[in-house]
Design brief:
The protein is an alpha/beta fold. It is built from 8 helices and 5 strands. α7 links the parallel β4 and β5. It is globular and about 55 Å long. The protein starts with 7 loop residues before the first strand and ends with a helix.
């Protein structure tokens, strides 16, 4: 694998990192998509049962909707694609803060998106955030592109991201809102930053994307 030693690369998570996904609107959209997915993939289940499964799953596991289907032998890959195809992105809003941050980073960093969501969902979100110019299709790595290997399960997602960026691990930053997703990247020598938005009930404490940009610039200046 050939590296471009002079450039820095950034591997970005999507949901919860490029926008705040902890909102009542996104929770509602997720539950509706889960309910519809259950009905479509388990045609013998009625709406009330499907909705109950989705709500119980969210109450116990959060957005890990694969647990809804454990008793029903549903293929996780089918679920992944269908759920994200149904999921409504209309509550996700354009943020001047985020676009300004990417404009500031654009000339100094290469970017790749690494998400546990589907490629179709990533495209919908990037369009809503007006970030498609920073993440062309060849720089979007979805879960289905890495054999459904999650960030906690192996190195293949990060190795593909590094190959796509063309930057070595020690000149690459991985940013994610879940701390548990950082460990494998760190084991490869990739710099990691944990960044997340606080709950909507604490907006007065909200970390801004501008704060993250300052952190990135400060980190790379020290290298």
């Amino acid at each position: 694998m050939e590296w471009c030693a002079q450039s820095w690369g950034i591997i970005w998570d999507l949901d919860g990192t490029l926008y705040c996904d902890d909102t009542p609107e996104m929770d509602d959209a997720s539950k509706k998509a889960a309910t519809q997915s259950i009905m479509d993939l388990c045609q013998d289940i009625d709406f009330q049962t499907a909705e109950s499964l989705a709500l119980n799953c969210y109450g116990e596991y959060g957005a890990s909707i694969e647990h809804c289907f454990a008793p029903h032998n549903i293929n996780e890959k089918d679920l992944h694609i269908l759920y994200h195809a149904i999921l409504d992105a209309s509550s996700i809003s354009y943020s001047e803060d985020v676009v300004a941050g990417f404009s500031q980073l654009y000339n100094s960093f290469r970017h790749v998106l690494l998400t546990h969501a589907s490629g179709q969902w990533a495209q919908k979100v990037l369009e809503r955030l007006q970030l498609t110019e920073f993440f062309p299709a060849e720089r979007v790595i979805a879960l289905e592109n890495v054999g459904f290997c999650k960030k906690t399960e192996g190195t293949s997602p990060f190795l593909l991201a590094l190959k796509t960026l063309g930057s070595p691990p020690d000149r690459t930053i991985f940013i994610d809102d879940h701390e548990e997703n950082l460990a494998v990247a760190a084991s490869l020598g990739i710099h990691t930053i944990h960044f997340s938005y606080p709950p909507q009930t604490h907006l007065d404490e909200q970390s801004t994307f501008g704060d993250l940009v300052k952190m990135i610039l400060s980190h790379t200046e020290l290298e």
